[in-house]
Amino acid sequence: MNISDKIKYIGVDDTTIDLFESQYAVPEGVSYNSYVILDDKTAIMDTVDKRGMKDWENNLLNTLDGKNADYVIVQHMEPDHAGSLARLIELFPEITVVGNAKTFVMINQFFENINIKNSLTVKEGDTLNLGSHTLTFVMAPMVHWPEVMVTYESSEKVLFSADGFGKFGALSLTENADWACEARRYYFNIVGKYGAPVQTLLKKASALDIKTICPLHGPVLSDNLGYYLDLYNTWSSYQPESKGVFIAYASIHGNTAYAAEQFAEMLRNKGVENVVITDLSRCDIAEAVEDAFRYDRMVLAAASYDAGVFPIMQDFLHHLQAKAFQNRTVGLIENGSWAPTAAKTMRNILETMKNITIVEPVVTIKSVLKETDIPALEQLADAIK
Ligand SMILES: Cc1cc2nc3c(=O)[nH]c(=O)nc-3n(C[C@H](O)[C@H](O)[C@H](O)COP(=O)(O)O)c2cc1C
Ligand SMILES: [Fe+2]
Ligand SMILES: [Fe+2]
């Protein structure tokens, strides 16, 4: 894959990884992207995870085709991108490593005995001329690590965006896949907490004339860039993307699940268009986090458990809390067989989050949904529909 005559893709697909970052299911794998700019001086934009080092090295040497590697730009030190940096320096001991002050601290942490002969420390707005290509470095601290920077190449108007605009899925397996679905799951779970730094970066990006975005995971983006930038603006400002009600339930013996299903039917019958329901015990939690952020309303239904809430719901709420979940309307349904405590426990966690509106009434079911519970469920449905 070529970005242009002079900008080449040298990344690799990882189709055998079990869990990305040891927690995210990636049934279609993931790509570690890396690029080479061929000019009077050559520049390598990031390396790849050690898991793909051999293939990447082949891609690099084939693409350089005997040329020297002059610069490596280290935009992000996470091992899925900087994992092959030491190998690169073994291959090209004279290469100039380009990073910011924080990058070099991390390089020395990750690679104890690395021998960098040539380095260039850059800061906001610094430029590096390669011949006909010029790189400008734009700091992006906490998107989503402190050393992150992105790079703008002005002659071809390419933004190398680090993990920004990244997506799960190996390129070879997801050629025709919808972008937003897995980009959204990636964004909220990995970057979600850092909405404000992403907003800052988007403001800086809006001053640039961008034709192509080259992220470190997923496809290169070149058409209709406004679509991707708008989604990133929505996501990073914690605004809901879609109107709809996301119902997440945590049920031990199935009765809370049944109540949640009945509630979903009720909402559909009242004309709510998007009603999405999930079983937190069995779904991918990262997918549930994605849906919680995606829709403007959420209903949580959970069994009480040891004077608290069924742990899988507690775990889900802690995930949302860790990702700075905010600005949403939430309804609560609890179940309990002797002293229901699920709603209070959920409310306590929700109250630590910014701008969460809990809709009344909170519905309490005793063991099994009964005819007598229907009016309260109807009231909740009317309040959130
Ligand atoms: C280990 C365990 C602890 C529970 N703790 C409570 C509790 O503290 N208070 C309560 O009212 N019900 C408690 N329950 C009962 C559940 O809330 C019960 O399963 C629920 O009322 C029925 O809904 P379900 O079919 O969705 O599980 C507990 C159940 C289990 C298995
Ligand atoms: Fe990262
Ligand atoms: Fe990454």
From TrEMBL:
<dbReference type="GO" id="GO:0046872">
    <property type="term" value="F:metal ion binding"/>
</dbReference>
<dbReference type="InterPro" id="IPR045761">
    <property type="entry name" value="ODP_dom"/>
</dbReference>
<dbReference type="GO" id="GO:0016651">
    <property type="term" value="F:oxidoreductase activity, acting on NAD(P)H"/>
</dbReference>
<dbReference type="InterPro" id="IPR016440">
    <property type="entry name" value="Rubredoxin-O_OxRdtase"/>
</dbReference>
<dbReference type="InterPro" id="IPR026816">
    <property type="entry name" value="Flavodoxin_dom"/>
</dbReference>
<dbReference type="InterPro" id="IPR008254">
    <property type="entry name" value="Flavodoxin/NO_synth"/>
</dbReference>
<protein>
    <recommendedName>
        <fullName>Flavodoxin-like domain-containing protein</fullName>
    </recommendedName>
</protein>
<dbReference type="InterPro" id="IPR001279">
    <property type="entry name" value="Metallo-B-lactamas"/>
</dbReference>
<comment type="similarity">
    <text>In the N-terminal section; belongs to the zinc metallo-hydrolase group 3 family.</text>
</comment>
<dbReference type="GO" id="GO:0009055">
    <property type="term" value="F:electron transfer activity"/>
</dbReference>
<dbReference type="InterPro" id="IPR029039">
    <property type="entry name" value="Flavoprotein-like_sf"/>
</dbReference>
<dbReference type="Pfam" id="PF12724">
    <property type="entry name" value="Flavodoxin_5"/>
</dbReference>
<dbReference type="InterPro" id="IPR036866">
    <property type="entry name" value="RibonucZ/Hydroxyglut_hydro"/>
</dbReference>
<dbReference type="GO" id="GO:0010181">
    <property type="term" value="F:FMN binding"/>
</dbReference>
<feature type="domain" description="Flavodoxin-like">
    <location>
        <begin position="245"/>
        <end position="385"/>
    </location>
</feature>
<dbReference type="Pfam" id="PF19583">
    <property type="entry name" value="ODP"/>
</dbReference>
<keyword id="KW-0614">Plasmid</keyword>
